[in-house]
Design a protein that fits this description.
4-stranded mixed sheet, alpha+beta, Dihydrodipicolinate Reductase, domain 2, 8 helices
Length: 279
Protein backbone atom coordinates (compact mmCIF):
# COMPACT_ATOMS: atom_id res chain seq x y z
CA UNK A 1 0.00 0.00 0.00
CA UNK A 2 2.79 2.45 0.88
CA UNK A 3 4.52 1.74 -2.44
CA UNK A 4 1.29 2.39 -4.36
CA UNK A 5 0.76 5.71 -2.60
CA UNK A 6 4.35 6.81 -3.22
CA UNK A 7 4.10 5.85 -6.89
CA UNK A 8 0.81 7.71 -7.43
CA UNK A 9 1.92 10.78 -5.47
CA UNK A 10 5.20 10.85 -7.39
CA UNK A 11 3.26 10.96 -10.66
CA UNK A 12 1.18 13.85 -9.34
CA UNK A 13 4.18 15.81 -8.06
CA UNK A 14 5.98 15.42 -11.39
CA UNK A 15 2.92 16.31 -13.44
CA UNK A 16 2.11 19.35 -11.30
CA UNK A 17 5.64 20.76 -11.43
CA UNK A 18 6.66 19.85 -14.99
CA UNK A 19 3.42 20.19 -16.98
CA UNK A 20 1.16 23.20 -16.70
CA UNK A 21 -2.52 22.29 -16.38
CA UNK A 22 -4.26 22.17 -19.75
CA UNK A 23 -7.07 24.51 -18.67
CA UNK A 24 -4.53 27.14 -17.60
CA UNK A 25 -2.45 26.79 -20.76
CA UNK A 26 -5.53 27.15 -22.99
CA UNK A 27 -6.36 30.48 -21.34
CA UNK A 28 -2.77 31.70 -21.67
CA UNK A 29 -2.79 30.90 -25.40
CA UNK A 30 -6.14 32.67 -25.76
CA UNK A 31 -4.76 35.73 -23.95
CA UNK A 32 -1.75 35.75 -26.28
CA UNK A 33 -3.97 35.77 -29.37
CA UNK A 34 -6.15 38.60 -28.05
CA UNK A 35 -3.41 40.78 -26.55
CA UNK A 36 -2.61 43.99 -28.50
CA UNK A 37 0.04 45.45 -26.21
CA UNK A 38 3.37 44.44 -27.79
CA UNK A 39 5.30 44.13 -24.52
CA UNK A 40 2.52 42.16 -22.88
CA UNK A 41 2.23 39.87 -25.91
CA UNK A 42 5.99 39.24 -25.79
CA UNK A 43 5.77 38.35 -22.08
CA UNK A 44 2.96 35.88 -22.82
CA UNK A 45 5.06 34.32 -25.60
CA UNK A 46 7.90 33.79 -23.09
CA UNK A 47 5.47 32.07 -20.73
CA UNK A 48 4.22 29.77 -23.49
CA UNK A 49 7.77 28.90 -24.54
CA UNK A 50 8.74 28.28 -20.90
CA UNK A 51 5.83 25.87 -20.44
CA UNK A 52 6.68 23.91 -23.60
CA UNK A 53 10.36 23.56 -22.68
CA UNK A 54 9.54 22.47 -19.12
CA UNK A 55 7.20 19.74 -20.35
CA UNK A 56 9.57 18.51 -23.04
CA UNK A 57 12.63 18.34 -20.79
CA UNK A 58 10.91 17.42 -17.48
CA UNK A 59 12.01 20.62 -15.82
CA UNK A 60 10.24 22.66 -13.17
CA UNK A 61 7.94 25.25 -14.73
CA UNK A 62 9.18 27.78 -12.16
CA UNK A 63 12.26 27.89 -9.94
CA UNK A 64 9.88 28.36 -7.01
CA UNK A 65 8.43 24.86 -6.77
CA UNK A 66 6.10 26.19 -4.14
CA UNK A 67 4.93 25.24 -0.70
CA UNK A 68 3.56 21.71 -1.28
CA UNK A 69 -0.08 21.36 -0.32
CA UNK A 70 -2.29 18.29 -0.54
CA UNK A 71 -6.07 18.13 -0.71
CA UNK A 72 -7.23 14.65 0.37
CA UNK A 73 -10.81 13.64 -0.35
CA UNK A 74 -12.22 10.34 0.89
CA UNK A 75 -15.18 8.76 -0.88
CA UNK A 76 -17.46 5.85 -0.16
CA UNK A 77 -16.17 2.87 1.82
CA UNK A 78 -12.74 4.34 2.42
CA UNK A 79 -10.76 4.00 5.62
CA UNK A 80 -8.82 7.19 6.33
CA UNK A 81 -6.67 7.25 9.45
CA UNK A 82 -3.64 9.16 10.71
CA UNK A 83 -1.24 6.57 9.22
CA UNK A 84 -2.69 7.07 5.73
CA UNK A 85 -2.54 10.86 5.99
CA UNK A 86 1.06 10.77 7.25
CA UNK A 87 1.95 8.36 4.44
CA UNK A 88 0.61 10.82 1.85
CA UNK A 89 2.52 13.72 3.42
CA UNK A 90 5.71 11.67 3.52
CA UNK A 91 5.21 10.62 -0.11
CA UNK A 92 4.97 14.25 -1.23
CA UNK A 93 8.15 15.08 0.69
CA UNK A 94 10.03 12.10 -0.79
CA UNK A 95 8.82 12.90 -4.30
CA UNK A 96 10.00 16.49 -4.04
CA UNK A 97 13.41 15.26 -2.95
CA UNK A 98 13.78 12.45 -5.50
CA UNK A 99 12.78 14.80 -8.36
CA UNK A 100 15.31 17.46 -7.27
CA UNK A 101 12.64 20.08 -6.67
CA UNK A 102 13.73 23.03 -4.61
CA UNK A 103 13.66 22.62 -0.83
CA UNK A 104 11.85 25.70 0.44
CA UNK A 105 10.43 24.87 3.89
CA UNK A 106 11.97 26.42 7.00
CA UNK A 107 11.12 27.11 10.65
CA UNK A 108 8.83 30.16 10.90
CA UNK A 109 11.03 31.86 13.53
CA UNK A 110 14.55 30.45 13.27
CA UNK A 111 14.49 29.82 9.49
CA UNK A 112 17.69 27.76 9.04
CA UNK A 113 18.50 25.46 6.14
CA UNK A 114 15.48 24.83 3.84
CA UNK A 115 14.14 21.27 3.73
CA UNK A 116 11.11 19.26 2.66
CA UNK A 117 9.37 18.50 5.95
CA UNK A 118 6.25 20.53 6.65
CA UNK A 119 3.92 19.55 3.81
CA UNK A 120 0.41 20.73 4.66
CA UNK A 121 -2.64 18.62 3.82
CA UNK A 122 -6.37 19.25 4.07
CA UNK A 123 -8.80 16.38 4.61
CA UNK A 124 -12.38 16.28 3.37
CA UNK A 125 -14.99 13.69 2.42
CA UNK A 126 -17.33 13.39 -0.55
CA UNK A 127 -19.89 10.54 -0.67
CA UNK A 128 -20.31 11.09 -4.43
CA UNK A 129 -16.86 9.67 -5.25
CA UNK A 130 -15.31 6.26 -4.78
CA UNK A 131 -11.86 5.62 -3.45
CA UNK A 132 -9.45 8.32 -2.36
CA UNK A 133 -8.50 11.40 -4.37
CA UNK A 134 -5.40 13.47 -3.71
CA UNK A 135 -4.65 16.82 -5.30
CA UNK A 136 -1.02 17.92 -5.11
CA UNK A 137 -0.86 21.71 -5.19
CA UNK A 138 2.58 23.41 -5.23
CA UNK A 139 1.64 26.93 -4.09
CA UNK A 140 4.09 29.58 -5.26
CA UNK A 141 4.80 32.02 -2.45
CA UNK A 142 5.22 35.24 -4.40
CA UNK A 143 1.48 35.17 -4.97
CA UNK A 144 0.70 33.50 -1.63
CA UNK A 145 2.19 36.53 0.13
CA UNK A 146 -0.55 38.65 -1.42
CA UNK A 147 -3.38 36.75 0.31
CA UNK A 148 -6.10 38.94 1.80
CA UNK A 149 -8.87 38.30 4.32
CA UNK A 150 -11.56 40.66 5.51
CA UNK A 151 -14.35 40.08 8.00
CA UNK A 152 -17.22 42.14 6.62
CA UNK A 153 -20.34 43.33 8.34
CA UNK A 154 -23.21 41.25 6.89
CA UNK A 155 -25.10 44.40 5.89
CA UNK A 156 -22.51 45.56 3.36
CA UNK A 157 -23.24 45.81 -0.35
CA UNK A 158 -22.03 43.46 -3.10
CA UNK A 159 -20.01 46.34 -4.51
CA UNK A 160 -18.01 46.66 -1.28
CA UNK A 161 -17.07 42.98 -1.52
CA UNK A 162 -16.05 43.42 -5.17
CA UNK A 163 -14.04 46.55 -4.35
CA UNK A 164 -12.13 44.65 -1.65
CA UNK A 165 -11.21 41.91 -4.15
CA UNK A 166 -10.15 44.44 -6.78
CA UNK A 167 -8.03 46.30 -4.23
CA UNK A 168 -6.31 43.02 -3.28
CA UNK A 169 -5.33 42.50 -6.92
CA UNK A 170 -4.20 46.09 -7.38
CA UNK A 171 -1.97 45.83 -4.30
CA UNK A 172 -0.54 42.49 -5.48
CA UNK A 173 0.61 44.18 -8.69
CA UNK A 174 3.49 42.82 -10.76
CA UNK A 175 5.25 41.32 -7.71
CA UNK A 176 2.91 38.30 -7.80
CA UNK A 177 3.78 37.44 -11.45
CA UNK A 178 0.61 38.15 -13.43
CA UNK A 179 -1.44 37.12 -15.28
CA UNK A 180 -3.19 35.81 -12.18
CA UNK A 181 -5.77 33.22 -11.41
CA UNK A 182 -7.82 34.58 -8.51
CA UNK A 183 -9.48 32.32 -5.96
CA UNK A 184 -12.19 33.85 -3.77
CA UNK A 185 -13.80 32.20 -0.74
CA UNK A 186 -16.92 33.71 0.81
CA UNK A 187 -18.53 32.39 3.98
CA UNK A 188 -17.70 29.93 6.74
CA UNK A 189 -15.35 31.35 9.34
CA UNK A 190 -12.11 33.22 8.65
CA UNK A 191 -9.97 30.11 8.08
CA UNK A 192 -12.60 28.37 5.97
CA UNK A 193 -12.99 31.37 3.67
CA UNK A 194 -9.30 31.15 2.79
CA UNK A 195 -9.55 27.38 2.43
CA UNK A 196 -12.37 27.88 -0.08
CA UNK A 197 -10.25 30.40 -1.99
CA UNK A 198 -7.49 27.82 -2.37
CA UNK A 199 -9.94 25.05 -3.27
CA UNK A 200 -11.28 27.27 -6.04
CA UNK A 201 -7.81 27.32 -7.62
CA UNK A 202 -7.48 23.55 -7.97
CA UNK A 203 -10.73 23.22 -9.89
CA UNK A 204 -11.06 23.83 -13.64
CA UNK A 205 -10.77 27.51 -14.46
CA UNK A 206 -11.82 27.40 -18.13
CA UNK A 207 -15.47 26.63 -17.41
CA UNK A 208 -18.12 29.04 -16.08
CA UNK A 209 -19.47 28.49 -12.57
CA UNK A 210 -22.54 26.25 -12.46
CA UNK A 211 -24.18 28.76 -10.15
CA UNK A 212 -25.53 31.56 -12.37
CA UNK A 213 -25.11 34.25 -9.72
CA UNK A 214 -21.49 33.25 -9.05
CA UNK A 215 -20.80 32.95 -12.79
CA UNK A 216 -21.99 36.52 -13.23
CA UNK A 217 -19.88 37.67 -10.27
CA UNK A 218 -16.76 35.95 -11.63
CA UNK A 219 -17.26 37.51 -15.06
CA UNK A 220 -17.74 40.98 -13.59
CA UNK A 221 -14.68 40.67 -11.34
CA UNK A 222 -12.52 39.44 -14.22
CA UNK A 223 -13.58 42.41 -16.36
CA UNK A 224 -12.76 44.87 -13.57
CA UNK A 225 -9.40 43.21 -12.80
CA UNK A 226 -8.33 43.28 -16.43
CA UNK A 227 -9.20 46.97 -16.63
CA UNK A 228 -6.47 47.66 -14.05
CA UNK A 229 -3.92 47.48 -16.90
CA UNK A 230 -1.29 45.72 -14.77
CA UNK A 231 -0.90 43.09 -17.47
CA UNK A 232 1.51 40.15 -17.88
CA UNK A 233 4.57 40.69 -15.67
CA UNK A 234 3.33 44.23 -15.01
CA UNK A 235 3.88 45.33 -18.62
CA UNK A 236 0.35 46.57 -19.20
CA UNK A 237 -2.27 45.21 -21.55
CA UNK A 238 -5.63 43.55 -21.15
CA UNK A 239 -4.60 40.36 -19.33
CA UNK A 240 -4.02 41.02 -15.64
CA UNK A 241 -5.95 37.85 -14.78
CA UNK A 242 -6.88 34.71 -16.69
CA UNK A 243 -9.80 33.74 -14.48
CA UNK A 244 -11.63 34.41 -11.23
CA UNK A 245 -13.20 31.48 -9.37
CA UNK A 246 -15.51 31.92 -6.40
CA UNK A 247 -16.61 29.32 -3.84
CA UNK A 248 -19.10 29.97 -1.05
CA UNK A 249 -20.28 28.39 2.20
CA UNK A 250 -22.96 29.28 4.76
CA UNK A 251 -21.72 31.64 7.46
CA UNK A 252 -22.79 33.13 10.80
CA UNK A 253 -25.54 35.75 10.98
CA UNK A 254 -23.10 38.24 12.54
CA UNK A 255 -20.40 38.17 9.88
CA UNK A 256 -19.30 37.71 6.28
CA UNK A 257 -15.70 36.48 5.78
CA UNK A 258 -14.15 37.05 2.35
CA UNK A 259 -10.78 35.52 1.47
CA UNK A 260 -8.70 36.19 -1.64
CA UNK A 261 -5.93 33.80 -2.64
CA UNK A 262 -3.97 34.57 -5.79
CA UNK A 263 -1.96 32.25 -8.01
CA UNK A 264 0.60 33.50 -10.48
CA UNK A 265 0.22 32.29 -14.09
CA UNK A 266 2.00 29.06 -13.08
CA UNK A 267 -1.04 27.53 -11.41
CA UNK A 268 0.15 23.98 -10.78
CA UNK A 269 -1.87 21.08 -9.46
CA UNK A 270 -2.42 17.42 -10.30
CA UNK A 271 -5.11 14.99 -9.18
CA UNK A 272 -4.64 11.26 -8.62
CA UNK A 273 -6.86 8.46 -7.35
CA UNK A 274 -5.52 5.90 -4.89
CA UNK A 275 -7.17 2.49 -4.76
CA UNK A 276 -7.17 -0.27 -2.17
CA UNK A 277 -8.09 1.92 0.78
CA UNK A 278 -11.46 0.32 1.56
CA UNK A 279 -12.61 -0.04 5.14
Amino acid sequence: MEKEILAEIDKAVRRANFSLRRDVFVLIEKAYKLEKNKKAKLALSWIIENVKIAKKKNLAICQDTGFPLGFITGGKKVKVDSALVENIKKSIELSYKRNYLRASIVSPFFRGKPGYKGVTVYLDFNPKIRGLEVVVFPKGFGSENKTKLKMFNPTISFKEIEDFIITAIREAGPQACPPFIVGVGIGGDSSYALYLAKKALVERIDKPNRDKFLASLEKRLLRRINSLNIGPMGLGGKTTALAVKVKTHPTHIAGLPVGVNISCWALRSARVKINNVKS
